[in-house]
Write a structure and sequence with these properties.
This protein is α/β, with parallel strands linked by helices and 570 residues long. It is built from 20 helices and 22 strands. It comes from Pilimelia terevasa.
């Protein structure tokens, strides 16, 4: 009998995954289907997509793995989520609620999950896995190179199941927890509330604060970092975070905000980033010293901070470092699935993450059906789509790409991407005007052939970076070839290092582009309109083409281009 395991997470940025006989087959975030960015709540549509992908009915599911023991299940619209934050610190009972979160392992939450599953026809038994152990499982099982090798696994986020950070040693599938920090001492919540206080959306815009940080004055940034440091430090042994106030870090936010009042926003962002990097670096160094393990894996939303990851990877005591791709709560289904597979089949049978191309494909039939509703495009069927895209980019065009299976997570990795020549210094302005409409200070990122990475990047430890989870300095002599894909203030970048020999379309495009130009690097940004999730379907990709000044799109095996307007219509 085939074992069909459904895994899910129902909080912020909810998602679902499915495995057949313990092998991961498909994973998708709810936002890609509802088009509600960062969707909060039960992943009804993602579950349906998982079942469609394996041609199964809800009754066919044999087991369910859930990546937490507590947390919300009901949908919370984005507007309601933001409204609740406005007066959060003025509400009575916040402290009481916090105590409940610390202790809660309530059967009521599990009933909500099982009831919601029953509502979509899934009645299989559910295994509930602790939130931070699930984050750690994504990193250990998903990224380990050798099951017999010991790994130091760090988790850090806002909070989940009463904790905000853990240190665990994993060896031969066995986890030994070294230290756990409770949610009252949360670094992630400091970033959350600073994001909200400056008009950005928590759970979504934290990276904008990180992007602004290098523009600020280092001296003023140090002053701000000291303010944060007055409220959160490391314990004497360096293995946990500790607050300096009786109230939690979260409930202390009004006092922190008062100390920051009147400071420039760029200084605040830079100070928070400096504080975050320093705290994480000292914490990681203490964990390495305590355990003697120099191979470090990481997961949890705080490790979406690629500049902090750069600091950790460079620590002299760290031999290797990797953060699980898109390691926020959207990855919890994968960690739950890994743990369930280990429980059922043994830890050695858990296959590591091969890549992030876990979503829907776009076939020629899909592309043709979407185009049938949109006449007026010039459509080609090139014999070599990769060469056709590379040729367009080589002559200065910006090309969207929606081909192959959609990427899981926050990063576009070539299959739902916009590609362009990073040697054009005016490209960020052009992209923002034509398509992206991003905040002016936000940098774009490069995709680099692995065989050419050392021509473009400083990567002395030769760390892999297939999923854009690390920042790296750009080589000064390579800047003319990649200037549009580096941070203009500190000349670092968030590279996707692409194996030359993979069968992904991006590797073929990079190879063809190198043959045409001599350069093994492209600018790669996500295929979406401002404020919307990354495109999923052929119709969604065409909506980006329609709603922007983008001129060219690879759509499955087809190449679609806009034609001149005739009589007011294409």
């Amino acid at each position: 009998m085939t074992a069909l395991t459904l895994a899910l997470h129902a909080g912020a940025n909810s998602a679902a995954a499915i495995a057949v006989d313990g092998r991961l087959i498909y994973c998708v975030q709810e936002e890609r289907l509802t088009r509600n960015k960062g969707h909060i709540g039960f992943p009804r549509e993602a579950i349906a997509a998982c079942l469609r992908h394996v041609a199964a009915d809800p009754a066919d599911v044999t087991a369910v793995a859930y990546g937490a023991r507590t947390g919300p299940v009901a949908h919370c619209p984005r507007e309601e989520f933001l409204r609740r934050l406005v007066d959060f610190h003025r509400r009575p009972g916040v402290a009481r609620h916090e105590v409940q979160l610390l202790a809660d392992d309530s059967p009521a939450n599990r009933r909500q999950v099982t009831d919601a599953l029953a509502g979509v026809g899934v009645k299989a038994p559910v295994s509930f896995y602790e939130h931070h152990r699930t984050h750690a499982a994504t990193a250990y099982y998903g990224l380990r190179a050798d099951p017999a090798r010991p790994y130091l696994v760090l988790t850090c986020d806002g909070f989940g199941d009463g904790a905000c950070a853990t240190i665990t040693v994993w060896r031969n599938g066995h986890a030994t927890e070294v230290a756990r920090t409770d949610l009252r001492n949360s670094l992630g919540l400091l970033y959350f509330w600073t994001t909200h206080a400056h008009g950005f959306t928590p759970h979504e815009d934290e990276y904008k604060l990180m992007g602004m940080a290098p523009h600020a004055d280092p001296g003023r940034a140090s002053q701000v970092a000291a303010v944060y440091g007055d409220f959160l430090k490391l314990s004497a042994d360096g293995l946990t975070f500790r607050r300096t106030t009786t109230a939690s870090v979260e409930r202390s936010w009004p006092r922190i905000a008062a100390r920051l009042q009147g400071r420039r926003f760029d200084d605040v962002f830079a100070g928070l980033q400096l504080f975050t990097e320093n705290l994480l670096a000292d914490w990681t160094a203490a964990a390495v010293a305590h355990t003697g393990i120099r191979d470090v894996l990481a997961a949890g939303g705080v490790f979406m901070n690629v500049k902090a990851n750069q600091r950790l990877a460079a620590l002299p005591g760290v031999d290797s470092f990797a953060a699980f791709p898109s390691c926020g709560d959207e990855s919890l289904p994968l960690g739950a699935l890994y743990q369930h597979t280990a429980d059922e089949y043994g830890h050695a049978d858990v296959a590591p993450l091969a890549d992030c191309y876990l979503g829907d494909d776009i076939t020629e039939a899909d592309a043709a059906a979407a185009l049938a509703d949109r006449p007026g495009y010039h459509v080609e069927h090139p014999a070599d789509p990769a060469a056709a895209v590379a040729a367009l980019v080589a002559r200065g065009e910006i090309v969207g790409r929606a081909a192959g299976r959609m990427e899981f997570g926050a990063r576009a990795l070539g299959n739902r991407s916009i590609l362009a020549d990073p040697a054009n210094p005016d490209l960020p302005r052009i992209l923002n005007r034509l398509v992206k409409q991003r905040d002016f200070w936000m940098p774009f990122a490069p995709a680099v052939l692995a065989s050419r990475q050392h021509d473009y990047l400083h990567n002395p430890k030769k760390l892999p970076s297939p999923h854009m989870m690390l920042a790296m300095p750009a080589r000064a002599d390579a800047l003319p070839e990649m200037i549009a894909a580096v941070h203009p203030a500190d000349l670092t970048c968030r590279p996707q290092i692409v194996d030359d020999h993979t069968d992904t379309g991006l590797a073929a495009i990079l190879t063809a582009y190198q043959q045409a130009t001599g350069r093994g690097i492209l600018l790669n940004t996500s295929l979406n309109l401002h404020g919307q999730p990354i495109a999923r379907t052929a119709a969604g990709a065409l909506a980006v083409l329609d709603g922007s000044d983008l001129q060219h799109l690879q759509l499955g095996p087809l190449l679609v281009s806009k034609t001149p307007l005739i009589g007011g219509r294409r």
